[in-house]
Amino acid sequence: MKKDQVQIGQTYNAKITDKVVPVRIDAEHKSGGWHGTNMTTNRKVHIKSAQKLRNKIAPGKATETEKPAKRQPVKKKLSAAERKTMLAKHKADQENVRQRDERKASPKGTTTSEEAMPSSAGKKRTKKKTTDASAKNKKLSLVAAAAQVLAKKNEPMTTKEMVDKVTAAGLWTPGAGKTPHATLYSAILRDMKSKTPRFQKVDRGHFTLAKGA
User: How far apart are CA 197 and CA 10, in angstroms?
Assistant: First the structure.
């Protein structure tokens, strides 16, 4: 920039040391150049020559040292599959919390669902001779007790009816869970997916023993 282009009161980009900063020209310096104010630090500076000055800064215009404002990231719109995955994860988290609370409330530290599962699941079954008395006193799982009730009833029943029957007959004792019929419903559905299902669904919410069970 040339000397005759410099105007008192205007702000220019100026190279101070090794940085380009906005400087306002305040007055001429007695030893040459101009008195100025570094607008970044608000300190007085001596601009010795017009060569130190770059372009004039228009009012309201960003300087070279000013960084543009960061753009806020645009929220990505979730697809139907992503929403479904998030919903499934949320439900799974809620179920984990429910089971944790149920275990804390249970004297045995187990959920109703765990109590309903056969105690010998996943293990090799061994044949063992038992007396009629010991077999009678052996505690049944909710699923086994339900199968026993269905065998005697010989007609379709809902899981709530099964729970009422096994409880009344003393075949099974409710745990800390408040919805054993829902737990039994889930256990029966899992059983129906096994290789040798004991149950079959005959109507909405009604089950019987599978053929050959």
Answer: 89
